[in-house]
Amino acid sequence: MTDIWWIMPLLAGVLLAMISGPLGSFVVWRRMAFFGDTLAHGALLGITFGVLTDINLTLALVVGSLVLALLLLPLEKRSRLSSDTLLGIVSHSTLAIGLVTLSLAQGIRVDLMGYLFGDLLAVSSADVLWILLAVIVVAGLMIWQWRGLLAATVSSELAAIEGYAVGRLNLLLILMLAVIVALAMKVVGILLVSALLIIPPAAARSLSRSPLQMALLASGCGITAVLLGLWASFHWDTPAGPSVVVAATLLFVLSLGVQNLRTRQVA
Amino acid sequence: MTTDQPLIRASHLNLTRQHKTVLSDISLNIVRGEIVTLIGPNGCGKSTLIKVLLGLVDADSGDIRRQRGLRIGYMPQRLSLDQRMPLTVTGFLSLTRHATGTDIDYWLKRLNISTLAPLSVHDLSGGEWQRVLLVRALLMKPDILVLDEPVQGVDVQGQMELYQLIPQLRDELNCAVLMVSHDLHLVMAATDEVICLNGHVCCSGHPDQVSVDPAYLQLFGNRAQPPLIAHYTHHHDHSHCDHDQHLHSGEQQHD
Q1: Closest by alpha carbon to B143, among B68, B58, B59?
Q2: A100, pLDDT greater than 80
Q3: What is the reported pLDDT for B223?
Q4: SS3 B28
Q5: Is the Cβ pair B85, A29 closer than 8 Å?
Q6: Is A24 inside a domain boundary?
Q7: I need a surface site. Which of A61, A122, B85, B202 has the fewest CB within 10 A?
Q8: Is A3 a residue whose pLDDT tops 70?
Q9: Contact at 8 Å (CB) between A233 and A243?
């Protein structure tokens, strides 16, 4: 029987790590780490909304995250400085408002820690289905629009002149990010979502020669981190989400070591 | 196809940014087979005009007509790539819309940079990168090739080569070329029409005419005709619009 309750957290973690590889690579390339963070923090408002209206919490999360992404989209286009500050304001105020309203919602008990730090072991088969569906859709869209997404990331100006629909591609990327961030919260929690998005691509960067290679390596690194983290969590009874992030960080440090070795060999 | 119809027809363009007039009443036509060069002091609207013509920036007023289905090859003044993305030259070029591997090989060979293909874009010298950017513009099989300061970061030898190449490319592709430069002498041989820009069009015409036009001389002063060998010495002197406009109006009073 023990095998059965293993399987759902494992599936959820591996699926999300898989899609986080390419998606997180775009986050890294476009310097959108803070944006992802803001989405995750704001998603707590989605949970509040879900709790108050008694709709499916996963659905509330995804919808909340999508709405926030759409509201934030114009900010991305503004100048760097102001968008930075504004994102900071939105990020922390939504987190705070979410926490306050959740505590005010009487008679309802919500596992706040579960949302802040993730509750991988409580993942249900329904959650996994949601995640599977999202991963299939996002992966499909990414494969379909890969060249355009990449072209718009490298230079939106050149891409626009060459006839790529840059505006739509940016929108697509942000919506995909919103969905995955909302779902990944279950696994690593609000506070660590962007770690899952950023650390594996960062580890993959020094080892890859092309964007595709970096995206795939990041997936591999993310999956390894999930496996290691879960194993550690079972073995030492550490919290699952943070364990995954610690594992990813170790892999990142390892990649730095490998890179160092390589450059020394070349030199 | 109507070849006599201009590819781009712009009339009475105006653009103001933060109370500063960037473009004022600019009209121009770009015709297939012609090489047009925009010159003018730094920061005086050349790049902005290009962006307006390409549709990247909207003018406050005026009218732009681009021929239907116009293919544009654009080589930006500078394009810095984020180190965080590993990217080879071939990888960068294959992002070009509709580009095929055969085309990429062909143009890399044509510009004598086939050896760069497997290299990382982050390891290229300024001149090499400029050529790669030019290849990307050429891969569009453009009706109009737009080059914004194409020789930036290129050594003098490379500049000569690049400027010799441009008329050849125009003939090969049967396209128009719109080029930005701040050195008339270098582009003189390679251009059909020069438009001297300083917010407004100061003067325009064949390079020989423009180089003796009073408006051009006022804008560039005597430095406009340095000894041929030292044709790059004056680059850093006339950097600001305000300064030059001031100079401009001052000299006008003298006249």
Answers
A1: B68
A2: yes
A3: 53
A4: strand
A5: yes
A6: yes
A7: A122
A8: no
A9: yes
Among B84, B88, B97, the residue with its CB nearest the CB of A162 is: B97
Domain B8-71+144-254 listed as CATH 3.90.350.10: no
Rounded CA-CA distance B255/B250 in Å is 9
| Cα of A78 to nearest chain B Cα, Å | 15
Residues of chain B with CATH 3.40.50.300: 8-71+144-254
pLDDT tens digit sequence for A38-47: 888 888 888 8
Distance from the Cα of B75 to chain A's closest Cα (Å) equals: 8
Interface of B with A in 91-110 (CB under 8 A): 91-92, 94-97
What is the structure's pLDDT at A144? 95
- Of the candidates B140, B137, B139, B121, which has an alpha carbon nearest to the alpha carbon of residue B129? B121
**Contacts across the A-B interface (CB distance below 8 Å):** 58
Whether residues A210 and B88 touch (CB distance < 8 A) is answered with yes
- Give the percent of chain B with pLDDT over 90: 22
Q: Would you call A162 and B92 a contact, using CB atoms and an 8 Å cutoff?
A: no
Average pLDDT of the segment spanning A219-244 = 91
| Distance separating alpha carbons of residues A149 and A238, to the nearest angstrom | 38
Instruction: CATH number of the domain at A47, please.
Output: 1.10.3470.10
Q: DSSP letters of A126-177? A: HHHHHHHHHHHHHHHHHHHTHHHHHHHHH-HHHHHHTT--HHHHHHHHHHHH
Region B137-147: mean pLDDT is 92
Q: Is the pLDDT of residue B146 over 90?
A: yes
Distance from CA of B71 to the nearest CA of A (A): 8
